[in-house]
Each structure stands twice: as C-alpha cells, then as structure tokens.
Amino acid sequence: MNRTIGIVLIVVGAVMLIWTGFTYTKKEKIVDAGPIQISADRQKTVNWPPYLGGILLIGGIVIIATSKKTA
User: CB 3.0–4.6 Å: which of 3, 6, 39, 48 could bond 60 by disulfide?
Assistant: First the structure.
C-alpha cells in the first residue's frame, strides 16, 4: 500500500512541476431581471507553487525508499 501511495505522490508531484496551474471558464449571470437574463463567460485561474510539486515528488521517493519489499 505504501508503494502505491509513493508512486501516486511521484506522479502528482511531477505533473505539478510541469504544469503550474490551469484555467477554466465559468458562466456567470450578470443581470437576472425577470425574462431578461444576461450572462458572461469568466475565466478563472488556479495556480500552485512549483515547490509544492517538488515536495510531493521527494515525499513519494522517500516513501518508496523506506517501504519494505514484500515477496
């Protein structure tokens, strides 16, 4: 189980180092006055610091290195 968690942390950490964030579009209502509705597409950005990906990557390596091998 520990090896699986370690591998997942390594993969997530590597992905976070490569892509430091993502952008998505959200539709928001601007005006809602009875039968008249006006909406607009707003872009939202989610960013995370690159060192967080490095910490996850190193943590995954440590977990795999310290986990006991099972036959």
Answer: 6
| Residue 7 included in any domain | yes
Gap between the Cα atoms of 11 and 9, Å rounded: 5
Does residue 57 fall inside a structural domain? Answer: yes
pLDDT tens digits for range 8-46: 999 999 999 999 899 999 998 888 888 888 899 999 999
Assessment of whether the complete model's pTM goes beyond 0.70:
no
User: Apex CA 22: angle with CA 4 and CA 28, to 5°?
Assistant: 125
Residue 8 belongs to some domain of the structure: yes
Stated length of the chain: 71
Residue 71 lies in a domain: no
Q: Looking at the 3D structure of the chain, how many domains does it have?
A: 1
Which residue type is seen at 60? G
Q: Which residues pair with 39 in a beta bridge?
A: 29
